[in-house]
Amino acid sequence: MRLLSSTPDGPPCLLVIDGVNFLWCRGTLLKDKTLSVNVTTDRLAIVHHLKRALRGDWRHGVIVTSTNIRAAWPTDREQYTPG
Predict the structure, then answer these.
(1) What highest taxon heads this organism's lineage (predicted)?
(2) Using 50, 70 and 90 to split pLDDT, how confident is the model at 29?
């Protein structure tokens, strides 16, 4: 996508990512049929490719992102209610 739109006559491109903060969270739980393993997010191929797209070094493209509080670990969220 980035390579295609980086050419001088490339088509315009729009990349939208909802919950972009999951790209930098501590880890995620991958469920296998036999075992559950904690894996860091940078080991996932989709995360690697999205981070490459977010560099912003391509022409004819727009990147729109949003953050999502549910994409963070519950222990990393700020408490807004009195304890």
Answers:
(1) Eukaryota
(2) low
One-letter amino acid of 78? E
Q: Is residue 33 part of a domain?
A: yes
| d(C-alpha 66, C-alpha 76), whole Å | 18
Count of the separate structural domains present in the chain: 1
Q: CA angle at residue 28 from 22 to 31, to 5 degrees? A: 135
Specify if 83 maps to a domain: no
The count of C-alpha atoms lying within 13 angstroms of the C-alpha of 27, restricted to the half-sphere facing its C-beta, is 8
| CA–CA dist 19, 45 (Å, integer) | 17
Q: Map residue 19 onto helix, strand or coil.
A: coil
Range list of β-strands (E), the chain: 13-18, 28-31, 36-39, 61-66
Instruction: Point out which residues pair with 38 in neighbouring strands.
Output: 29
